[in-house]
Structure prediction request, 212 residues.
Amino acid sequence: MKNIVILISGRGSNLQALLKARLPCRIAAVISNRADAEGLAIAKMHGIPTEVVAHRDYMDRDSFDTALAKIIDGYQPDIIALAGFMRILTATFVTRYHGRLINIHPSLLPAYSGLDTHARALRDGVKIHGCTVHFVTPDLDHGPIIIQAAVPVLRDDTEQALAARVLREEHRIYAQAIRWLCKDKVILNEQGQAKLRHRKQSGFALVSPGLE
Ligand code: GRF
Prediction:
């Protein structure tokens, strides 16, 4: 069974969804860069070892990432999942975990990389928004895509309502992506593409606001 280490910075709802999903891997540890991350309590409740590597204790990104990698490597993970981990990682760190490091992002990448994705989507008036699980590469939020979920943006959506609709899908697709990784059904190939070995595909179109 593969080992997975999950990195968080806050609330931990994705972590909770992954715990609930009964993944076919061992969650070896949950690591946070903030001691006050609510997700740490969720991990503890499930009897999962937790660690804090506080970025404020380090002079620069390189020394923080080196300390973080040392802790991660102690758990010998096959997969490292960023679940609301709010630090930008150095190219050295990302390259060390090539093909093993994944992230969940609250937009349909490559649209809306970075922060405030829901507010920006609302401002632009897009009618379809969503979330993405991707392999992490040094190009921030632009690594090869494993799976995406799209949701409609509704007429009277607030940022909170839209965020909640996207978050529900994050919880579903992150568990799916990790299940595939655990079973070697998705790999990052030599051409730098995410290759899926499963055949099932859905041909349904999401039309928003819908045809009459
Ligand atoms: C999620 O929206 C995730 O996509 C983003 O940060 C948020 C973390 O939420 N990277 P949670 O801590 O998993 O509840």
